[in-house]
Amino acid sequence: MDSRPLFQALHALAEDNAAFFRQSATETGHRFVAAFTAIREHARCLEPVLRHFASVCHIFDLDEATPANGYRSLAQTARCCLAHVLHKSRYVAANRRSIFFRTGHNVAELEAYCAALAQLRALLYLAQRLLTHNRPGCLFHHEERGLTEQVLHEYCTLHKGCFYGRCLGFQFAPSIRPFLQTIAIGLVSFGENYRRHVSSLSMAAGSLFTSGKFAIDPELRGAEFERITQNLDVHFWKSFWNLTETELLADSEALSALTRAEGSLGLELWRKAAPAPPSPLLLVHFHGGGFVAQTSKSHEPYLRGWAQELGAPLLSVDYALAPEAPFPRALEECFFAYCWALRNCRLLGSTAQRVCLAGDSAGGNLCLTVSMRAAAFGIRLPDGVMAAYPVTLVRAAASPSRLLTLLDPLLPLSVLCKCLSAYAGTEPAEDEPLGLEKLSPVNMMRRDTALLLRELRHSASAWLGALLDSAGRSNGAGAEAVRKSVSEAALDNNSPVESRSSRKSQTCQDLLCGVSAPLAPAPGPSPSGSPQASFFLSGEPPEAAPSGDEGLEYPDGFEPLRSDQPPANLILEASPVVKNPFMSPLLAPDSMLRGLPPVHIVACALDPMLDDAVMFARRLRELGQPVTLRIVQDLPHGFLSLSGLCRETRQATALCTRIIREILLPSAPAPPAAPASPRKHRKLERRPAPGAASGRESMATGQQSGVLGLAPTTATLEPSPTPSQERGAPLDSPRRQEAGPRASPTGREVGA
Q: How far is Cα 226 from Cα 238, in angstroms, rounded to an integer?
């Protein structure tokens, strides 16, 4: 895309508007001149940077048909911001002499977009550093410290309020922006009244009285949004995201019952429909929510649509959430639910001839890891996986798309780090202020008991980890270690409460030995350029974060805007458990990825998790695994939960539905071409054989039934149980396909 006309028009308008307002001696006139001068300077410096990204960003695409990566997204976001500035500059040039021209409002809009341009300029400089230091074709930084730590430090100190005020959601579709503004107003109002041990319903009711000031003052909303994302813990986000599916929805039925009109009672008699035959299809769904929030209820609108459009039973799993239940609890429960569904598919109204796993965000991660777990245990694999915007690297790693967390209102980097740390079990326990909890004897005993149990659990984890570590070193690493329980693999690390001195003597190789040795890829650059486990920080104790002077330096004397909030407490030293491939599928060795079923990924071009999807699809493509990557434009992370909001979200949801339909009802292969036959006599062609017409009709009928998805009756042998299955692991049901009458099945939704 040629950006020269955009920059030429912007330069001309900025010069013309600045010259006009120089004639004004008012304070607003000086603000206009300063804003247009800064816009012209930012545009002059951004033009060569965007031209450079346009020349190299195609190297990081999955293929020519899928032009998507973090560098493209950053350049697209910068061009979108410049387009908004150009539109505003044209409006000012056309209406600056009108008596109805609102000078205060328009200069505030220009100043906000000018600040956004400055911060985007800083992000593009950081992306240039990543482009210089990364391996060819790799989107994630390969070093464990250095630039990754500097990028995280820069994020903590950069000003973010400009992206949450007047410029909120400028990079997304225009139909999404009103919804994002409503979410931002509700978030800051809820955060102002947030108390840890107070009911969410009472806090939501109190926030209604304070939301007005954030609606009329965008600058105040942006500053409060930045304060909340920097300071509040994961429990706040859990309470806010669960707000619409707990007390409010539970009380809405009672409130609606009170408002019903009084009158005669009307009775409607419904005839019970005949039960439909079992469907050969089964859809298993794992919901998103950052591993810490939400249930299947919040995803129910599009799940009902899937069940109705696909005509398949749907099982949505409500797994345990972090930080109360960290890894591997969610994976264990989802894997058990998948095995239960295969064995008890009749209870769900299905014969499970075709099975599909589907999930979004954290649920997409669980779909991939459950498939890897099934392959490791010899359980029947699903026929395909549909993962929408999945996270495949559970860590705050530096990549160009994750730089978009600076301006994403739904997924800021500090929130992402808190959720991933809670799932990994590395989120530090924060002491409650005395004013938030009544220190009665019962509460004190409950708190002391919880602390004692936590200390006992950490001590037991450390003891078992040392025991498994010594056993793994003495026995060696074999193929049987891959089939160990994820719980045992998760215990092969030191507890966060262990002293730092004991961790100093350990190296990354020591942490990768024993149980997790066969699960981690070998160190060193791979020939395919795929990411390795070295993305994680080493076992050395964290050093002091570099200051602004000792950190990154920007060219041409440029300095971005800095935040006046205290820096977010991002965990730079992650637990070794995050190296487990069942937590981060991007770090899985090739042998584990080769056992995956066909994977279909739907990602958003403006999603901070875009690079996770691109790099994981590239690894599967290099291994020869069947994988597809489809990109949705102009939509934020989590668009499935907004399926009924606008036309763009409905189209993206329809794309996911079409992918699931292709997995469950694959199109029949084309029949082989008939061999060329010698030319017959003319009289023989006029008189076909008596059975020829019926043969053609039967062949056409057979092709039609294949298109409808009727599977032939086949029988396959059940795999022999593995030693881990003999110890009590869930077994797969026999894979004998049962033929039955193919009627239009009725979708049933079951929540586990």
A: 18
Q: Which of 588, 491, 486 is nearest to 535 (CA)?
A: 588
- Tell me the catalytic residues: 361, 607, 637
Give the number of other CB atoms < 10 A from CB of residue 67. 14
pTM: 0.74
DSSP string, 44-63: HHHHHHHHHHHHHGGGGSSB
Q: Structure tokens of 337?
A: 């639910």
DSSP state of 66: B
φ, ψ of residue 411 in degrees (nearest 5): -145, 65
Q: Is residue 261 predicted with pLDDT exceeding 80?
A: no
pLDDT for 97-107, tens place per residue?
Answer: 999 999 999 99
Cis-peptide into 626, omega within 30 deg? no
Report the amino acid identity of residue 750: V
Residue 143, C-beta contacts closer than 8 angstroms, at least 6 positions apart: 133, 534
Tens digit of each residue's pLDDT (9 = 90 or more) over 193-245 = 777 666 655 566 666 667 888 999 999 999 999 999 888 888 888 888 887 67
Helices 329-343/362-377 angle, 10° precision: 60
Q: Which of 127, 117, 122, 119 is nearest to 6 (CA)?
A: 117
Q: Where are the alpha helices (DSSP H) in 327-384?
A: 329-343, 362-377
Q: Are 191 and 232 in contact (CB under 8 A)?
A: yes
Closest CA to 402 of 173, 231, 610: 610
Other CB atoms within a 10 A radius of the CB of residue 332 amount to 20
Nearest to 391 by CA among 421, 360, 422: 360
Neighbour-count burial of 496, counting CB atoms closer than 10 A to its CB (0-12 exposed, 13-18 middle, 19+ buried) = middle
User: Cα dist. 751→284, 313, 606 in Å?
Assistant: 10, 11, 31
Share in percent of the chain as helix, strand, coil (round to 5): 50, 5, 40
- Calpha distance 99→107 (Å, rounded): 16
SS3 600: strand
**Residues 616, 398: contact at Cβ < 8 Å?**
no
- For the chain, what is the radius of gyration of the CA atoms? 29
